[in-house]
């Protein structure tokens, strides 16, 4: 579901940039949990939050409601890892971000499939 | 009297009358009369403004006179230019002025040219400020003629440019219900033709284009780029020189930054045109070579981006370079000299396969351009000097583990191979070895297919190498018998499959076909005789390979005949032998008679037959038909059989032989229409009897198809009527009752199809019979499914490819004739058979061309919606697949019913959970479809189709959809958790879109 998300800066997908990898995605169907670790391309990548938000939104739209989502940065790969993880885990901040029409447009652009 | 009246209105009316008369009879006037009238009208131009329109009408009539004496045209125009302020007239009258000018320009060119630049100036004044699109089209045409016919422009070039270029870029939306039908596109094209008509405009036009290109408006950019491209066709160095740097920087900026693919394409086209224009110009010895400096600046700006295969600007740069390089041989050399070594160096520098792939793809783009220039020239080509490194890069990519990289490398290999004289013979052998390895042993099927494809396209260029090296290797692998060490049986099978596919793929040249066909046939015989009998899949693969070979050599007369002569008798012989063995109670050979194998043989024989010339086909038909009718086996190879072959004879043990009617069908139904079939009446009678009486559904259906195929091609006349009457007489009683109702229905369907296709009068009567059967509880569902058979393209008989008589628009005709009856039948039918009518209807609609369907939609939509609530899943599925494209194509009509549509689609996305409540065996084993009554795959297919429709709903206008948004998104959450992966996938797509 998330391999084909476009990077906001590059003409490549997250999979091609190795931002998301299969080993860093854990799905437990029985307990209805999904955990995704993503690795920003550089430790100071300013787009880390946006990438995380895109992954989160894609999963929110594509997974059944029973799943609990956890999207965070692979430990030790980003300068402000903690802050970004906190933002992504905060439901209200995610919801608020999606109310922002400009941000929503950027996210949708990342999610639009390259045909 | 009127003409001299003091009241201008009355005077006007008088002149109007005179002008009307003149318009009717201008061709009858004499020279003197014309002179007189012209003088009169000229003087009237000074009259009251109310009179002017009529005066102009009169002048227009006179301008069409052939006897106008010399000098008059000039004086009329002078008078108009002087006395009339054209732009203060009404649209119609301005149009009259333009007509007068056009008339004179077409008949009195010399005289007008005598006016010199005054004429141009006069015209500029006339059209200055014109606003009406109708007039503009005429005015633009006049300007184009002024330039094309070389009128003196004098000092007025800039004025003429100003007066036309002020409309650029054209911004015009035709009013709704415009009766004149002028489109924005017409004006754009006509203005572009003016602007790009002369190099004299260059100094004014180019700055304007650059300015518009730098603007924000998409349409202005597009228009400028297209105009620039058009201009390059006539401009030379001189015109462009001054503006090249700014043109390049604008183009570069657009390609690097734009998000619109269209603008990018136009930019690249413009760059291509610019480079081509510069390369065309002849250099004088002392001037600077503009092309060289232009290309240098391109290289300078783009080259370094190529070194960063991860970044966004790689592809735009590569495209710019390729656009410039594609312009001429000179530009190609200049650019490749600099870029190719760089790319090769970058390839070795970067080690990740994704980066290497990008670099190789760019390299491939440049290699493809080389193809355009044909053969390589010894002394000049950079490519030849780089032969060794290019080859080594491509070969290294072929062995890379990344499939994507392999695919690009295979493509590059194909291009390299098509460059005559590029690959040395040792390289070629290496190429073939690589292809064999990839085709046979590469795990990824994509790579292996691509390798076969490449072998197929290279084989005609180097037939010797392929037939000498590849075919023997493949043959060896194929015959290597038992599985090698460490290979499982399964691996061995797939290797054999690959060998067979590769043999077919490489057979693209006659000389190779002569090598491969015997190998394939030999393998077929071996499988049939061999101890491993029972390997159906293997036989089917051989047949598929043979089919592919047949398609590849269809165009070549000689190859086609060779194939036909080799393959058809051999297949028949093998089949006949198997059938005999079957009748003499041996188990051997049974595989060959399985439906699947026979069905695979049909396309082979059909493809080998359709392209035969009539003489050769006649020769062949004189062998095959007697084989089936008289058991005449002498033409088959190895024709010593234990008993006689009589597929149409009675007898229990002949069941196996009867099945071979399938092969007869493949042959006779593919013959060209002008080939006479010996003993056709007899053959038709036998087929008819077989199709009505045989208990084996496969044989009965095949016989019916064969009968239909022959009837379709049978010339009209008494004979045809007799045989059809015979068929009807046989069908009617068995349709009514008895054990053979299904067979009779099949025959009815196929014969109806054959006749519907050729518009035979009897088809209407047969269709009515079919419509009647829809009300039958036993045969109704099958008859309803038959409508799909009638409308669909059938794969083996009765289509254009096998020379059937198919009239255009037979589907539309069937639709208009029969849909009203279907609808009527639906309303009159009992509840238990209503579904049959809906099913039939949705089958007919499903196959109807979409444009026709869209126009008929409003009347049928309510019925279709009703069909969605029908509980029959086939009806649901068929209706959904009919609605889905309509949602995309006719959103306006569909939005009227959005409420119903949303509800029904959402219900269907989860419907099977309700339907699944009655115990259905979860059918995981691939049972034959007919055994598990409501096929579980069908539920899944319905859900998928419903989700696709829900997805397609998003193409309706947004305001219509917004009220349903929350509800749909909520409802689509449920199929996200569906049991089937394919359903979940569609649900994700649909929900994401919503």
From TrEMBL, chain A:
Keywords: Chromosome partition. InterPro entries: FSCA_dom_sf, MIP18, MIP18-like. It comes from the Eukaryota. Residues 2-68 form the MIP18 family-like domain. One of its GO terms (biological process) is protein maturation. GO terms for cellular component: cytosolic [4Fe-4S] assembly targeting complex. Component of the cytosolic iron-sulfur protein assembly (CIA) complex, a multiprotein complex that mediates the incorporation of iron-sulfur cluster into extramitochondrial Fe/S proteins. As a CIA complex component and in collaboration with CIAO1 and MMS19, binds to and facilitates the assembly of most cytosolic-nuclear Fe/S proteins. As part of the mitotic spindle-associated MMXD complex it plays a role in chromosome segregation, probably by facilitating iron-sulfur cluster assembly into ERCC2/XPD. Belongs to the MIP18 family. Component of the CIA complex. Component of the MMXD complex, which includes CIAO1, ERCC2, CIAO2B, MMS19 and SLC25A5. Interacts with CIAO1, ERCC2 and MMS19; the interactions are direct. Interacts with KIF4A; the interaction facilitates the transfer of Fe-S clusters to KIF4A to ensure proper localization of KIF4A to the mitotic machinery. Interacts with CCDC117; the interaction is direct. This is Cytosolic iron-sulfur assembly component 2B. It comes from Daphoenositta chrysoptera (varied sittella). The lineage of its organism: Eukaryota, Metazoa, Chordata, Craniata, Vertebrata.
UniProtKB/TrEMBL annotation, chain B:
It holds the Pfam family MMS19_C. Keywords: Cytoplasm, Cytoskeleton, DNA damage, DNA repair, Nucleus, Repeat. It is found in: Cytoplasm, Cytoskeleton, Spindle; Nucleus. The keyword Nucleus applies. One of its GO terms (cellular component) is MMXD complex. Residues 499-953 form the MMS19 C-terminal domain. Residues 2-257 form the MMS19 N-terminal domain. One of its GO terms (biological process) is iron-sulfur cluster assembly. Belongs to the MET18/MMS19 family. Component of the CIA complex. Key component of the cytosolic iron-sulfur protein assembly (CIA) complex, a multiprotein complex that mediates the incorporation of iron-sulfur cluster into apoproteins specifically involved in DNA metabolism and genomic integrity. In the CIA complex, MMS19 acts as an adapter between early-acting CIA components and a subset of cellular target iron-sulfur proteins. This is MMS19 nucleotide excision repair protein. It comes from Atrichornis clamosus. The lineage of its organism: Eukaryota, Metazoa, Chordata, Craniata, Vertebrata.
């Amino acid at each position: 579901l998330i391999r084909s998300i476009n990077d906001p800066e590059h003409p490549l997908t997250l999979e091609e940039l190795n931002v998301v990898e299969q080993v860093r995605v854990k799905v437990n169907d029985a307990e209805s949990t999904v955990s995704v670790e993503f690795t920003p391309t550089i430790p100071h990548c300013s787009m880390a939050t946006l990438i995380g938000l895109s992954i989160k939104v894609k999963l929110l739209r594509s997974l059944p409601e029973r799943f609990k989502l956890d999207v965070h940065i692979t430990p030790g790969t980003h300068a402000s890892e903690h802050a970004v993880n906190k933002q992504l885990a905060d439901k209200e901040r995610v919801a608020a971000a999606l109310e922002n029409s400009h941000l929503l447009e950027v996210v949708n652009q990342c999610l639009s499939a390259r045909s | 009297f009127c003409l001299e009246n003091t009241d201008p209105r009355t005077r006007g009316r008088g002149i109007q009358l005179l002008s009307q008369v003149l318009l009717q009879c201008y061709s009858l006037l004499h020279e003197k009369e014309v002179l007189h009238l012209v003088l009169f009208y000229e003087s009237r131009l000074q009259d009251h403004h109310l009179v002017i329109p009529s005066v102009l009408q009169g002048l227009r009539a006179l301008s069409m006179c052939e006897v106008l004496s010399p000098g008059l045209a000039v004086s009329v125009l002078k008078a108009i230019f002087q006395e009339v302020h054209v732009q203060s007239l009404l649209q119609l009258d301005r149009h009259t002025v333009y007509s007068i000018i056009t008339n004179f320009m077409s008949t009195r060119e010399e005289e007008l040219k005598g006016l010199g630049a005054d004429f141009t100036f006069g015209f500029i004044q006339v059209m200055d400020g014109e606003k009406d699109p109708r007039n503009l089209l005429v005015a633009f045409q006049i300007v184009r003629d002024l330039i094309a016919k070389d009128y003196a422009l004098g000092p007025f070039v800039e004025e003429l440019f100003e007066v036309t270029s002020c409309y650029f870029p054209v911004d015009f939306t035709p009013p709704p219900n415009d009766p004149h039908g002028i489109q924005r596109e017409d004006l754009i094209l006509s203005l572009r033709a003016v602007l790009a008509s002369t190099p004299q405009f260059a100094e004014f036009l180019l700055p304007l284009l650059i300015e518009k290109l730098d603007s924000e408006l998409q349409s202005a950019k597009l228009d400028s780029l297209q105009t620039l491209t058009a201009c390059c066709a006539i401009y030379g160095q001189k015109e462009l020189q001054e503006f090249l740097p700014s043109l390049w920087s604008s183009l570069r900026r657009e390609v690097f930054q734009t998000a619109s693919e269209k603008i990018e394409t136009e930019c690249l086209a413009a760059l291509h045109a610019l480079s081509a224009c510069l390369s065309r110009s002849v250099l004088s010895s002392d001037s600077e070579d503009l092309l060289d400096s232009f290309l240098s600046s391109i290289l300078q700006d783009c080259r370094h981006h190529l070194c960063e295969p991860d970044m966004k600007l790689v592809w735009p740069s590569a495209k710019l370079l390729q656009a410039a390089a594609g312009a001429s041989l000179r530009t190609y050399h200049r650019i490749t000299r600099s870029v190719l070594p760089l790319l090769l160096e970058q390839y070795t520098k970067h080690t990740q396969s994704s980066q290497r792939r990008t670099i190789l793809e760019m390299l491939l783009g440049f290699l493809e351009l080389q193809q355009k220039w044909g053969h390589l020239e010894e002394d000049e080509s950079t490519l030849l000097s780089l032969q060794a490194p290019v080859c080594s890069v491509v070969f290294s990519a072929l062995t890379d583990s990344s499939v994507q990289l392999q695919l690009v490398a295979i493509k590059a290999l194909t291009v390299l191979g098509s460059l005559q004289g590029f690959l040395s013979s040792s390289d070629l052998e290496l190429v073939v070895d690589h292809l064999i390895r990839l085709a046979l042993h590469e795990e990824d099927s994509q790579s292996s297919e691509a390798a076969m494809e490449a072998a197929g396209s290279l084989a005609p260029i180097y037939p010797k190498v392929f037939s000498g090296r590849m075919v023997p290797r493949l043959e060896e692998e194929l015959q290597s018998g038992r599985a090698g060490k460490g290979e499982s049986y399964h691996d061995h099978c797939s290797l054999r499959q690959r060998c067979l596919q590769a043999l077919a793929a490489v057979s693209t040249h006659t000389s190779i076909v002569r090598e491969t066909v015997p190998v394939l046939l030999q393998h077929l015989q071996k499988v049939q005789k061999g101890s491993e009998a029972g390997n159906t899949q293997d036989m089917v693969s051989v047949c598929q390979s043979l089919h592919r070979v047949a398609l590849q050599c269809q165009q070549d007369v000689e190859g086609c005949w060779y194939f036909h002569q080799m393959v058809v008798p051999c297949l028949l012989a093998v089949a006949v032998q198997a059938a005999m063995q079957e009748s003499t109670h041996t188990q051997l050979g049974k595989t060959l008679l399985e439906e699947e194998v026979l069905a695979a043989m049909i396309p082979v024989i059909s493809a080998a037959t359709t392209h035969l010339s009539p003489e050769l086909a006649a020769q062949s038909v004189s062998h095959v038909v007697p084989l089936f009718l008289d058991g005449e086996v002498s033409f088959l190879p190895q024709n010593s059989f234990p008993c006689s072959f009589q597929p149409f004879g009675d007898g229990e043990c002949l069941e196996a032989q009867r099945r071979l009617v399938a092969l007869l069908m493949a042959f006779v139904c593919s013959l060209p229409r002008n080939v006479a079939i010996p003993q056709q009446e007899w053959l038709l009678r036998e087929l008819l009897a077989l199709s009505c009486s045989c208990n084996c559904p496969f044989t009965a259906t095949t016989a019916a198809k064969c009968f239909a195929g022959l009837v379709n091609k049978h010339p009209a006349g008494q004979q045809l009527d007799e045989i059809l009457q015979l068929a009807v007489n046989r069908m009617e009683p068995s349709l009514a009752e008895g054990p053979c109702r299904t067979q009779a229905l099949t025959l009815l369907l196929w014969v109806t199809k054959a006749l519907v296709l050729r518009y035979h009068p009897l088809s209407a009567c047969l269709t009515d019979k079919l419509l009647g059967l829809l009300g039958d509880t036993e045969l109704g569902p099958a008859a309803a499914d038959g409508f799909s058979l009638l409308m669909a393209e059938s794969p083996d008989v009765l289509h254009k490819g096998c020379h059937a008589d198919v009239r255009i628009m037979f589907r539309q005709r069937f639709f208009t004739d029969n849909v009203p009856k279907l609808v009527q039948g639906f309303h009159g039918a009992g509840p238990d058979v209503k579904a049959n009518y809906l099913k039939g209807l949705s089958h007919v609609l499903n196959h109807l061309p979409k444009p026709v369907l869209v126009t008929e939609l409003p009347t049928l939509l309510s019925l279709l919606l009703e069909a969605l609530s029908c509980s029959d899943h086939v009806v649901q599925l068929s209706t959904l697949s009919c609605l889905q494209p309509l949602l995309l194509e006719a959103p306006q009509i569909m939005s009227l019913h959005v409420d119903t549509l949303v509800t029904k689609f959402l219900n269907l996305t989860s419907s099977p959970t309700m339907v699944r409540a009655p115990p259905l065996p979860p059918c995981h084993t691939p049972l034959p479809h007919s055994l598990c009554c409501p096929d579980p795959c069908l539920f899944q297919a319905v859900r998928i189709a419903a989700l696709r429709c829900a997805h397609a709903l998003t193409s309706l206008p947004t305001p219509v959809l917004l009220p349903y948004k929350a509800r749909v998104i909520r409802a689509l959450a449920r199929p996200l958790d569906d049991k089937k992966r394919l359903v979940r996938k569609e649900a994700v797509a649909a929900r994401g879109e919503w």
